Amino acid sequence: MKKIHLIIFAATAILATGCNRLDIAGMVVNRSDTEERVADWLDWNSQNEPIVIDMPNDYCFFSCSDSHYSERDSIVPQGENDRLYRYITTMRNEPNAAFAIHAGDMVNESGEAGFLMTEEALRYNPEDQAWNKPCFLVIGNHDVYFDCAKYFKQHFHTSTYTVTVNADEAKDLFIFLDSGNGTHGKRQLEWLEEQLEHRSDYRHCFVISHNWLFRTSYNYTTTPAANLPQDEQYAFMDLMSRNDVDMVIMGHFHMREQRQFGGVQYVMTDNLNEDVDMPSYLVVNVGEKVTYEYRELSEE
Fold first, then answer.
1. 11: CB partners within 8 A, 6+ apart
2. Three-class secondary structure of residue 238 per DSSP
3. CB count, 10 Å around CB of 150?
4. If you ran DSSP here, which 8-state letter would residue 69 be given?
5. What phi and psi values does residue 186 have, to the nearest 5 degrees?
6. What predicted TM-score, i.e. pTM, was given to this entire model?
7. CA-CA distances (angstroms) from residue 218 to 71, 88, 215, 221?
8. Are strands 204-211 and 247-251 parallel, antiparallel or unpaired?
9. d(Cα 74, Cα 169) in Å, to the nearest integer?
10. What sign has the CA pseudo-torsion 164, 297, 251, 256?
């Protein structure tokens, strides 16, 4: 049976390549190296001011993932009806919201078009949006495929960085990571440990990456840049637990899921593209305690 599946996959791949819809080599072999990208991200960080946002003690932030813009698949921004646009507009009209997060996979094909579409959907529109609040992004596996990482860098600059929220009486730390190749890589994990050395200076700590850590029977369908290697996964989760990280937010599998492990809450959002009739996004409420809820994306 496995042999038949492989033959079917190979035949489909050849046909898809012939009609210029799929770059098999670009999916199976990522041409962008994690260590090189992280070096670029950290170099950009060193030349720019750290991101600091002032908020009251109680605030919220939004998180989504996997919008997968594609001209060829007709998943393109549709003005006010576009899902990513509606998501960012809802956040920008929420008085208590600090910012939005996009946890990776902005695009679904080769070329720069999907990144331009993402910029269009996230662009501030004062006619619809009360505040120009930011959206922070991380790179996903589809943003790495097809030699696309250079476009992510051009438009969004970095995927390994921190955001600090200065609340009235405390500080909260947000750490954003690159897992586009199915690994965080040696340098990035060293950098992550360096950030967590200062964990005691913060009230809460959140980590955002793309690739979901847990494999279950219903999400065990994925591409080569999928889950972290097991030894890295265990080390990463141990690092989260030892440093009292409140929540790890991820995407990738296009379905909502939650796991509590080692005192850490792991949360995955579903996707914002056209695979689901009514997508949801995550709203995390931050105060003395951290709570979260999924909200369906309004059609209005």
1. none
2. helix
3. 14
4. B
5. -65, -50
6. 0.87
7. 29, 30, 8, 8
8. parallel
9. 47
10. positive
Give yes or no for a contact between 283 and 62, defined as CB atoms under 8 angstroms apart.
yes
The pLDDT tens digits for 147-202 are 999 999 999 999 999 999 999 999 999 999 999 998 999 999 999 999 999 999 99
Report d(CA 47, CA 73) in Å as an integer: 37
The letter for the amino acid at 185 is G
First vs last C-alpha separation in the chain: 46
* Contact between residue 107 and residue 68 where contact means Cβ atoms under 8 Å apart: yes
| Domains of the chain in sequence order | 1-28 (no CATH), 31-296 (3.60.21.10)
How many whole angstroms separate alpha carbon 57 and alpha carbon 238? 29
C-alpha 109/C-alpha 36 separation (Å) is: 22
How big is the chain, counted in residues? 300
Number of helices (H), then strands (E), in the chain: 8, 12
- In contact, 104 and 148? CB cutoff 8 Å: no
Count of beta carbons in the 10 Å neighbourhood of residue 125:
14
Pairwise CA distance, residues 208 & 265, whole Å: 12
Residue 31 pLDDT: 62
Q: Which two tokens stand for residue 278?
A: 């009514």
Dist CA 296 CA 212 (whole Å): 21
Instruction: Report the alpha-carbon distance of residue 243 to residue 262 in Å, rounded.
Output: 11
Q: Where are the alpha helices (DSSP H) in the chain?
A: 2-18, 24-28, 34-46, 83-92, 113-122, 149-156, 186-196, 230-242
User: Is the Cα dihedral 133, 137, 142, 143 positive or negative?
Assistant: positive
Q: What is the pLDDT of residues 220-254, one digit of tens each?
A: 454 444 567 778 888 999 999 999 999 999 998 88
